Structures are given as structure tokens and as C-alpha cells.
């Protein structure tokens, strides 16, 4: 088992794929973390959403980081297994957490340090006991995929299920009970997992064309798989930003990491048979490494929620209509202590408004007597004019 686990360390493909996967995870989650902050800061300005972000160079820089990390993850598929890529995703998660905490001058707690230690141990165990370099049992070809579909083979049916799954979540999210952080994150994470599987299929078709005499680019299905991968990249990016704007980063990040990792690992095993020939003990150690990473990520992100949150924002739902509230409708300021001042000022404004209403209501009865008090004055004036006219007549 140890010899099998350590065998691929001598293969250059492992190091190339590992570096691309590591760099990709860092840029990917770091871009997500700072994009969240950019969304919050930009929401303080009253501008149109699309026009504003298209003109914001900072947002474009962070978005480029996010896309660059995603591309690096895709490139790593050509060298290593999906399970190895998933094994280093948590590294990018805690890099994003720590950078964002440092960026907004938040204290790093002992719980954070323990989380990093546990996550690092989990990454090391997962990397050592994964099979690393992917060696398919048979070349992935269009004819092979077609035969699997005709035979209703479970692995290829799982691919079809993954392709359809994000749209199922989108349809469910229309209804009020499903308007929550879980379903919003499930949409983006399922798009990510589906894209991982589709692009991995495309990479294997490219490798088959390069290593054998069977050119897979003569089939239109190859271009369909590539087109779906590009489409799912765009949709994944869109729904990821929707989740960023609508929900707390820490909660959505945990769910995103868990759901995407689970679907990707299941796809890697069912479709590509990555664990074929792997001993049971090696698989147990591999899952132990993933479990430790999961615990470490929970410790990291759990210490940055509620009172100690990186972003003082929980799920933004409109309690009246059940619809998501745009961040531009939420008053946020991270550069000053005005978070606690603004609610008080709103209370003072409400109190002043209520006081004005009370004043107006109390003045109404006082104004009516004045009208009645003015009547004797008018009568007195009339009497004086009559007396003056009478005196004039007498004088004549």
C-alpha cells in the first residue's frame, strides 16, 4: 500500500498537476474572498449594478484572479486525478479566510491556528494516499461514451444527472421554501462539479487523440462537451457571485466547498474509476485526510461568524415577501465604526417623526379655540364702526 501510494512521487506529472491545483485553489478562493469585500464596498455607492462593476477596475482585477484560479484547476486535470485536485482545495479556503481577516484587521484566534494545523495534516494525508496520476483502464472515446449511454451504465447516467442537477436547483429556488443559502450555494457548487466532470471528459478525449490514432475531434460530441463546459463556467461564475452578494461568505463557502467536493469525488470514481486497484486501507486513509480537512475548514470559518464575522451579514431575506434583498439595499460600512451609529440615528429619526406627529395632533385642538376667540373681536370691530357712523350722523 505504501509503495503504491509513493510510486507516483517520481512522476513529473504529479508535480505539474499538484502545482497547478495548489495555485488554482489559492487564486480561486482568494479571488472569491476579496470579491465579496468588493461587492460590499461597491454596494455603498448608489449606481446601476452592471454599469458599476464593468467600470470598476478593482472588481475586474479580483474577477481575473478568480478566473485564473479556475483555469489552473482545469489544467491540473490533464496531469492528476480529480481526487487530488479536491484534496488541495481546502488550502485555498483558509488562505482566503486569513487574507480577508488580515485585510479588514480582524484578530487571528487560537481556533484559527488549530484549524490551519488540522487542515494541513489532512491535506498531507490526502496527497500522500491519493493515486495522484490518472491512468485510465481504457481510453476515453466518444464511441465508448455512446455505448455507455446506450447500455444505461450508471457512471454515464451520473454524468447526465450532474449536467441536469443545477437546473433542478434553479427551478426549486423559484419557490419560497427553497429561497435560502443552501439552495443558492447548491446551484453554484453543482455547476462547478458538473464543469469539473465535463472538462475532465474533454481533457481525456484530447489525450486519447494525442496518444492514439483515434482522433476524437471528428465527432461533434467532442465540441458539445467543450461547449457545455464553457457554458457551465459562465453559469457557475454568475451564480457564485449571486451567492456572494446575497449570503454570508463563511456559510456559503463551507457549503460550496462540501457540495462541490462531494459531487466531484463521486464523479471521479464512478466515471473515471480512479480508485480501481486501490486498497481499502488506502481509501480509508484518503477519507481520513478529507475528514480532517473538513473539520479544519469548519474551525476556520466557524470562528469568523456571528459576532466575530468577517462580514457582519447573515442571510439577507425579505421577511415580508421571502425574496432576496440586494446588498445595495443594505447599509454597510466596514471602514468606520458607523455600523453601530446608523441604527441609532435611524431610531432618533423615527422618534423625531413620532414627536412631530404628536405635536401636530396636540396643536389641532388649540387652533380651533382660537377661531372661536376671534369671533368676539370681529363683533367688537363691527360695533365700533357702527358707533363711529352714528356719531357722524349726529354731528350732521
UniProtKB/TrEMBL annotation:
Comp. bias regions, Polar residues: 378-396
Superkingdom in the source lineage: Eukaryota
Chief location bin: membrane
Membrane topology annotation: Multi-pass membrane protein
InterPro entries documented for this protein: EmrE-like, Mg_trans_NIPA
Biased composition (Basic and acidic residues): 339-348
Keywords associated with the record: Membrane, Transmembrane, Transmembrane helix
Protein name: DUF803-domain-containing protein
Amino acid at each position: 500500500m505504501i509503495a503504491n501510494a509513493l510510486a507516483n512521487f517520481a512522476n513529473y506529472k504529479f508535480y505539474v498537476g499538484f502545482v497547478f491545483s495548489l495555485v488554482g485553489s489559492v487564486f480561486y478562493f482568494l479571488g472569491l474572498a476579496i470579491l465579496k469585500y468588493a461587492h460590499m464596498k461597491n454596494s455603498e455607492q448608489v449606481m446601476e449594478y452592471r454599469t458599476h462593476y464593468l467600470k470598476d477596475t478593482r472588481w475586474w482585477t479580483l474577477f481575473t484572479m478568480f478566473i485564473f484560479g479556475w483555469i489552473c484547476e482545469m489544467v491540473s486535470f490533464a496531469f492528476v486525478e480529480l481526487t487530488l485536485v479536491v484534496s488541495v482545495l481546502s488550502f485555498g479556503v483558509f488562505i482566503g479566510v486569513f487574507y480577508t481577516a488580515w485585510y479588514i484587521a480582524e484578530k487571528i484566534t487560537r481556533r484559527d491556528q488549530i484549524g490551519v494545523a488540522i487542515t494541513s495534516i489532512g491535506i498531507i494525508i490526502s496527497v500522500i494516499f491519493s493515486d495522484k496520476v490518472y491512468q485510465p483502464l481504457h481510453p476515453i472515446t466518444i464511441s465508448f461514451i455512446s455505448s455507455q449511454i446506450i447500455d444505461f451504465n450508471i457512471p454515464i447516467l451520473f454524468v447526465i444527472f450532474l449536467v441536469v442537477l443545477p437546473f433542478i436547483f434553479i427551478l426549486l429556488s423559484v419557490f419560497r421554501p427553497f429561497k435560502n443559502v443552501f439552495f443558492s450555494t447548491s446551484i453554484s457548487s453543482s455547476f462547478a462539479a458538473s464543469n469539473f466532470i465535463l472538462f475532465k471528459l474533454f481533457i481525456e478525449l484530447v489525450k486519447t487523440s494525442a496518444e492514439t490514432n483515434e482522433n476524437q475531434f471528428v465527432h461533434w460530441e467532442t465540441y458539445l462537451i467543450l461547449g457545455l463546459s464553457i457554458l457551465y463556467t459562465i453559469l457557475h461564475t454568475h451564480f457564485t457571485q449571486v451567492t456572494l452578494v446575497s449570503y454570508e461568505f463563511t456559510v456559503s463557502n463551507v457549503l460550496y466547498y462540501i457540495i462541490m467536493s462531494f459531487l466531484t469525488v463521486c464523479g471521479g470514481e464512478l466515471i473515471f474509476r480512479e480508485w480501481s486497484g486501490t486498497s481499502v486501507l488506502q481509501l480509508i486513509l484518503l477519507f481520513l485526510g478529507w475528514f480532517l480537512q473538513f473539520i479544519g475548514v469548519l474551525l476556520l470559518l466557524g470562528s469568523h461568524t456571528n459576532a466575530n464575522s468577517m462580514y457582519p451579514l447573515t442571510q439577507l431575506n425579505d421577511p415580508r415577501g421571502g425574496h432576496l434583498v440586494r446588498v445595495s439595499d443594505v447599509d454597510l460600512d466596514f471602514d468606520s465604526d458607523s455600523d453601530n451609529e446608523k441604527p441609532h440615528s435611524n431610531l432618533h429619526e423615527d422618534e423625531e417623526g413620532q414627536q412631530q406627529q404628536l405635536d401636530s395632533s396636540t396643536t389641532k385642538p388649540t387652533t380651533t379655540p382660537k377661531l372661536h376667540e376671534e369671533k368676539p373681536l370681529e363683533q367688537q370691530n363691527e360695533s365700533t364702526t357702527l358707533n363711529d357712523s352714528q356719531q357722524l350722523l349726529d354731528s350732521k
